[in-house]
C-alpha cells in the first residue's frame, strides 16, 4: 500500500500527495527544488478490447490472406481452436501489458457461439474476478460468427446469465443479412437481461448509415438511452457530411456512443463532427498484439490517443489536452477525496505525455501499486512518501 508521493506534478503544480484508505487524502503544493517530478495522470479506459483472441508471443503463426470478412471469421476460428488451452495465461499476459500502459478499465468482447459455447466467457470471468483489484472489466457476449448467422442467441443469453453485462453483435446487415431481425433479437435480449448493448459495425456507407438509424430507433423504443454503443462505425467516415451531421445529432440525442480504435487502414468516424454534435467518442485498442485480424495490435491507449490527435491535426495544447477526454477514465484534474487511481510518467504536462508516450513509471489502483517499471523493479521508495503524513 502506498501512503503517499513525495513530489509529483499534478494539476499543473508540484505537490506532495497523501493517500489514505484508497483515496487521495491531501494534495499539498511544495516548492520547486529543481528536481524533475513525475507527472500524475488518470488511468485509461479501454472501451473495446478482445482478450480471448491473442496469439502466443513465443511463436509466429503464419498469416493468411482472407478473401472476405466471412473468410476472415473462418480463418480466425481455425487458428484459435488449437489455442484454447493457453487462453487464460495469454489473456493474463495481455492484461499485464495493458496495466503497464496505465489501463484501469476495460470493456472486453468475448466470443460466444454454439461450438465454443461459453468457454471463452468462463475464462474471462475468472480473469475479471482474479484481477478485480487492478482493473475494472466488463464483458460483452459477442457472437463473432454472426448472431443470427451462427444461431448464437441462446448462447448469448447463457453468457448474460453467467455474468456478461452487454449484448454484442456484428454487422446486422452484412453478416446476419437482416438488420431488423438481428437488432430485434439484440434489443430483446438486452431488455430481458437488463444488459447494455455494443455492436461491431463494419458495414459500409449506406448500409452502415441505415443500420445506425435502426439502432437509434430501437434505443428510443426500448428506453435504452445511454446504454448503447456502436463500435468501429467506419460508415460514418464514408458518408457525406450533410448526411453525417443529422445522424450524429441523433446519436447524441439518443445517447449512443461511438468507439473507435483509430484505424489508419480504413475510414473512421470523423471525430470533429461527432464531437461538435455532442456524440461521446471513446477509444479502444481492439487488438493488443498479434491476432488473426492484424499483426499490428497496440495495447497503449496513450499511443492510440496520439494517433487520434495526429489524424485530426490536434497539434496545439488545447487540442492535445482535449484528446484525453476520449480515453482517460476520469478528468485530468485530481481533487482531494478522489480515488487514488493514477499513473506516473516522465513528462511535464499531459500534452507532452501524449506527444512522447513515456514508459509508465507507476500505475496505482485504489492506493495500491499494480504496474509500471518502478513497481516491477521494487523502486517505490524513490517516489513514495514513507511515513505518516506530517
Ligand atoms: Zn472488436
Structure summarized in a few sentences:
Helix content is 33%, strand content 22%. It is α/β, with parallel strands linked by helices.
Model description:
The protein is an alpha/beta fold and 390 residues long. It has helices at 69-80, 87-100, 119-130, 153-162, 179-193, 205-221, 241-254, 271-277, 301-311, 317-323, 350-356, 373-376, and strands at 4-10, 13-20, 23-29, 38-41, 44-50, 103-111, 136-142, 166-170, 196-201, 228-232, 256-260, 281-283, 342-345, 360-365, 368-371. The strands form two sheets. The chain has an eight-stranded parallel sheet with strand order 5-6-7-8-9-10-11-12. A seven-stranded mixed sheet has the order 3-2-1-4-13-14-15. Strand 7 (136-142), helix 4 (153-162) and strand 8 (166-170) form a beta-alpha-beta unit. Helix 6 (205-221) packs parallel to helix 7. Zinc ion binds at residues 48, 50, 109, 200, 286. Residues 48, 50, 109, 200, 286 line the site of zinc ion.
Helix vs. strand class? alpha/beta
Approximate shape: globular
- State the helicity in percent bands: 25-40%
Rg, nearest Å: 21 Å
Q: Count the helices. How many?
A: 12
The hetero molecules present are:
zinc ion
For the secondary structure, the number of strands is: 15
Distance between the termini: 18 Å
Amino acid at each position: 500500500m502506498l501512503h503517499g508521493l513525495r513530489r509529483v506534478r499534478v494539476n499543473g503544480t508540484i505537490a506532495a500527495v497523501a493517500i489514505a484508505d484508497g483515496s487521495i487524502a491531501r494534495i499539498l503544493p511544495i516548492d520547486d527544488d529543481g528536481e524533475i517530478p513525475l507527472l500524475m495522470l488518470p488511468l485509461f479506459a479501454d472501451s473495446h478490447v478482445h482478450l480471448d483472441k491473442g496469439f502466443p508471443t513465443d511463436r509466429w503463426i503464419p498469416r493468411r490472406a482472407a478473401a472476405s470478412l466471412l473468410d476472415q471469421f473462418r480463418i480466425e476460428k481455425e487458428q484459435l481452436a488449437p489455442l484454447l488451452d493457453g487462453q487464460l495465461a495469454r489473456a493474463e499476459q495481455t492484461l499485464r501489458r495493458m496495466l503497464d500502459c496505465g489501463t484501469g478499465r476495460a470493456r472486453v468482447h468475448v466470443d460466444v457461439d454454439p461450438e465454443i459455447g461459453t468457454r471463452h466467457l468462463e475464462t474471462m470471468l475468472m480473469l475479471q474476478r482474479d484481477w478485480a483489484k487492478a482493473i475494472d472489466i466488463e464483458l460483452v457476449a459477442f457472437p463473432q460468427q454472426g448472431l443470427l448467422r451462427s444461431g448464437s442467441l441462446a448462447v448469448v443469453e447463457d453468457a448474460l446469465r453467467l455474468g456478461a453485462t452487454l449484448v454484442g453483435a456484428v454487422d446486422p446487415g452484412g453478416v446476419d443479412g437482416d438488420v431488423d431481425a438481428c437488432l430485434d433479437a439484440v434489443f430483446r435480449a438486452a431488455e430481458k437481461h437488463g444488459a447494455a448493448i455494443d455492436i461491431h459495425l463494419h458495414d459500409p456507407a449506406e448500409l452502415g448509415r441505415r443500420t445506425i438509424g435502426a439502432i437509434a430507433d430501437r434505443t428510443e423504443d426500448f428506453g435504452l438511452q445511454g446504454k448503447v454503443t456502436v463500435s468501429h462505425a467506419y460508415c460514418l467516415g464514408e458518408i457525406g457530411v450533410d448526411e453525417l451531421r443529422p445522424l450524429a445529432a441523433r446519436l447524441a440525442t439518443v445517447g449512443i456512443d461511438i468507439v473507435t480504435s483509430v484505424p489508419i487502414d480504413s475510414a473512421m468516424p470523423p471525430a470533429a463532427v461527432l464531437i461538435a454534435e455532442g456524440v461521446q467518442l471513446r477509444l479502444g485498442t481492439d487488438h493488443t498484439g498479434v491476432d488473426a485480424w492484424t499483426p499490428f495490435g497496440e495495447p497503449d491507449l496513450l499511443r492510440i490517443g496520439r494517433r487520434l490527435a495526429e489524424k485530426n491535426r490536434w497539434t496545439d495544447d488545447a487540442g492535445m489536452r482535449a484528446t484525453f477526454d476520449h480515453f482517460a477514465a476520469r478528468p485530468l484534474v485530481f481533487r482531494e477525496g478522489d480515488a487514488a487511481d493514477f499513473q506516473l510518467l516522465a513528462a511535464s504536462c499531459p500534452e507532452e505525455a501524449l506527444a512522447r508516450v513515456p514508459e509508465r513509471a507507476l500505475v496505482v489502483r485504489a492506493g495500491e501499486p499494480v504496474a509500471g517499471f518502478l513497481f516491477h523493479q521494487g523502486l517505490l521508495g524513490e517516489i513514495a512518501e514513507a511515513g505518516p503524513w506530517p
